[in-house]
Amino acid sequence: xxxxxxxxxxxxxxxxxxxxxxxxxxxxxxxxxxxxxxxxxxxxxxxxxxxxxxxxxxxxxxxxxxxxxxxxxxxxxxxxxxxxxxxxxxxxxxxxxxxxxxxxxxxxxxxxxxxxxxxxxxxxxxxxxxxxxxxxxxxxxxxxxxxxxxxxxxxxxxxxxxxxxxxxxxxxxxxxxxxxxxxxxxxxxxxxxxxxxxxxxxxxxxxx
Length: 208
Hints:
It holds the Pfam family Serpin. Belongs to the serpin family. One of its GO terms (cellular component) is extracellular space. GO terms for molecular function: serine-type endopeptidase inhibitor activity. With 208 residues, the protein is mainly beta. It has a single domain (2-203), classed as Roll (Alpha-1-antitrypsin, domain 1), CATH 2.30.39.10. It is built from 1 helix and 10 strands. The strands form 3 sheets. A 5-stranded antiparallel beta sheet has the order 4-5-6-9-10, with no helix packed on it. Strands 1-8-7 form a 3-stranded antiparallel beta sheet, with no helix packed on it. The protein has a two-stranded antiparallel sheet with strand order 2-3. A hairpin with a 2-residue loop joins strand 9 and strand 10 (196-203). The relative contact order is 0.21.
């Protein structure tokens, strides 16, 4: 029964994410204590409104830490009215918004005090999943499984995930004079569609 349930879940996730996310859950994760399995998957593919020219992609330094530096392929483009750069004093961060066709955009955050995480649903004392079943304390989460895929290229963005995440972005004023935005150290990024954040992640280990 557990094997069949895992196969059903994995097949659905694979279909929804255009074969980008495979084997999300293993049958051994399901046992006699399992009551509910919540599965959420998304797939997004969009093209930049202003594409990056492949000839501008160059090897550049990425500072994983103060003492660890690697060379990565970095896309580049000249300042444009399509790009929004703003500075948040509250978060001590610099943000870049890159528009995508279809009322979407990608935001990059260098670096902020934002923290990604959920804790209460794992606690016997604090977990309240009565909206699903039972009373407060009857159910709690003991494990979260997540697989993600994102490909950012000169043409656009392709992303898939087996979870959903919504995080508000604080308001910050747009700067009118051209500014440089150089993503040469760890940063947080978001994919936003119609003011809803559908994908969030953190880049600390760039592909090189």
